[in-house]
Amino acid sequence: MPGFIPWPEPWAERYRRAGHWRGDTFGGLLRALAGRFGGRTALVDGERRWSYRDLDQKADRLAAGFARLGLGPRDAVVVQLPNTAEFFAVIFALFRLGALPVFALPAHRSLEIRYFCEFTRAKAYVIPGAATGFDYRGLASGIRDTVSSVEHVIVAGESPGASGGVIALDDLLDEPHDQFVSSAGPTGGDVAFFQLSGGSTGVPKLIPRTHDDYILSLRGSVEICGLDDTSVYLAVLPVAHNFPLSSPGTLGTLLAGGTVVLAPRPSPDEAFPLIERERVTITAVVPPLALVWLEAAATLRHDLSSLRVLQVGGAKFGPEAAARVKPTLGCQLQQVFGMAEGLVNYTRLDDPDDIVIHTQGRPISPDDEILVVDDDDREVPAGAVGHLLTRGPYTIRGYYDSPEHNARAFTPDGFYRTGDLVRLTPLGYLVVEGRAKDQINRGGDKVAAEEVENHILAHPAVRDVAVVAMPDAFLGERTCAFVIARGAAPKGVEITRFLRDRGLAAYKIPDRVEFVDAFPETGVGKVSKKTLRAAIAAKSRGGAPS
């Protein structure tokens, strides 16, 4: 596949011999699961309950419907759906067809969606219906008018016969189809889908994940997290995100024969009743949401006794908050640290509290290779803080069609530069100390400073800008834009409105705008973002920078 960097054959053969890669595909796995679990509940979406057999049949019918539209193997399809059962019918249909879902998030707007469609030459774009509170149809209309490759806009959650130049997803289910099989694969080594990086420069890079490597990650996660056919997973985070998709997430739960319960929103007043009603055993949240749940548990009276595991990931979870999970919620905390590019680390369910509270876990696979190095790529002494590099059977060897970026993001021998600063404990657990990349982790949403800076620089009243992280007790980090105006400074609200009008996702718009006359500089004349971060941290505390 052009633009995809595969594992070198000696490494691929090693992973096959070790049993990591077994040649399975997602379409084939669903077929086997439907045969094994049949009428057992796979998905709960509100009052709707789909069995494994239902999901398998809907995937077959949708695959046939997509094929009638002219979609085929290796055709990219941007999928932007919320936490609904249709998300799974769509992606398994595309897997079965050999087409390639591009997992957009509900928060993405025109700037990101246009890029995904253009870069992948997507032939179709799948959106939610009108009940979401945002005009995805209007967004899709603009995309179709400006991206020539997009031939079809497909709307989920609307009645058949949709108008306005779009196709209702249900219209593609109008004919029964028995066991759809694509005439051209796919195979286990083929790319299954594209995820999105949280990169530090520009719009997200595309991460090609193969059936083999992702299914390996799922199998390992299911084993580590103790899932089986009695497990009930509550999906409260956006299901297209890597964490709730695969760690072990929704796909891991299905692989184990369990039940996935879909929450439309993550607030405790919606999630807690679902935990009680569906007897949820495991769920996953980001640190800011964990803090909200911990506070709500003291006032909302719901039976959470079925909950065995609360996973927290997406950003570092402070030890003080981590120590509150077991006494407050009555369940085991599991810290998860990973990335859509591959490597995933877990604290184990039988680890002592000290490890669970103070580390971010250890890797899934014994063949995950970890290096902690200094700025010159020399390994640091044991226990010292350094840059995390990794290589392994489910960590990509390169972003899709991005040779220049790959030259910086990967070493010549295939190690991925994660951009994380970590230290390694004597027992092989990682403790995350921060980020080396110019990236802001806003409650689990990654914001590339350079991308936001480039958009702000397009404002006619802006001469220069530097975007940095500022500490926040709730989200961990928020964004602050330091702006040097050209002439009279505009109001901060004008900057944010300008970014919103450019189609930037809401979570990327700076939380605060500060106007300054000049930027502090390093000894070599570069903008000192370290000084700016210290300044805004001190200002937010009401003090002066040290």
From TrEMBL:
InterPro entries per the UniProt record, alphabetical: AMP-bd_C, AMP-bd_C_sf, AMP-binding_CS, AMP-dep_synth/lig_dom, ATP-dep_AMP-bd_enzyme, DHB_AMP_lig
Reaction catalysis annotation: 3-(methylsulfanyl)propanoate + ATP + CoA = 3-(methylsulfanyl)propanoyl-CoA + AMP + diphosphate
Keyword Ion transport: no
An annotated Gene Ontology molecular function: 2,3-dihydroxybenzoate--[aryl-carrier protein] ligase
Top-level lineage group: Bacteria
Coiled coil: none
GO biological process assignments: siderophore biosynthetic process
UniProt entry keywords in alphabetical sequence: Ligase, Nucleotidyltransferase, Transferase
Enzyme's top EC category: ligase
Residue ranges of domain AMP-binding enzyme C-terminal in the record: 451-526
Pathway: Siderophore biosynthesis
Ranges for domain AMP-dependent synthetase/ligase: 34-400
Entry keyword annotation includes Ligase: yes
The enzyme's E.C. designation: 6.2.1.44
NCBIfam families on file: DHB_AMP_lig (TIGR02275)
PANTHER family according to UniProt: LONG-CHAIN-FATTY-ACID--COA LIGASE, NONRIBOSOMAL PEPTIDE SYNTHASE PES1 (EUROFUNG)-RELATED
Family: Belongs to the ATP-dependent AMP-binding enzyme family.
Protein name: 3-methylmercaptopropionyl-CoA ligase
Species, as recorded: Skermanella stibiiresistens SB22
Taxonomic placement: Bacteria, Pseudomonadati, Pseudomonadota, Alphaproteobacteria, Rhodospirillales
